[in-house]
Amino acid sequence: MELNKACYTLKELAELLSLNPKTLAVNVTRRPHTMPVPIRIGRQVRFTSESILQFINDQK
């Protein structure tokens, strides 16, 4: 998988993983160990391409 951007929003990550954005939003706060490591900027949550790739590799 090739990621073109440095950071992805929650909605973009949901599209990338084919998941519901609301599910990801809940998992960020309630089950953070099941998600790529997020970066928080105020209320905004971003995911780096490195953390997404690491998350995907750990799932294998």
Could you explain the architecture of this structure?
The protein has helices at 10-17, 21-30, 49-58, and strands at residues 7-9, 38-41, 44-48. The chain has 60 residues and is of the alpha+beta class. It has one domain (7-58). A 3-stranded antiparallel sheet has the order 1-3-2. A hairpin with a 2-residue loop joins strand 2 and strand 3 (44-48). It is globular and about 25 Å long.
- What is the number of beta strands? 3
Percent of sequence in beta strands: 15-25%
Report the structural category: alpha+beta
Helix and strand run = EHHEEH
**Spatial strand sequence of the major β-sheet:** 1-3-2
Number of helices: 3
- State the end-to-end distance: 13 Å
Percentage of residues assigned to helices: 40-55%
- Shape annotation: globular
Uncertain residue segments: none
Quaternary structure state of the chains depicted: single chain
The domain tally reads 1
Sheet with the most strands, sense and barrel status: 3 strands, antiparallel
Task: Give average pLDDT, whole number.
Answer: 91
Gyration radius, in Å: 11 Å
Brief overview, please?
This protein has 60 residues and is α+β, with helices and mostly antiparallel strands. It is built from three helices and three strands. Strand 2 and strand 3 form a beta hairpin.
Strand and helix map with partners:
Blueprint: E1 7-9, H1 10-17, H2 21-30, E2 38-41, E3 44-48, H3 49-58
Antiparallel strand pairs: 1-3, 2-3
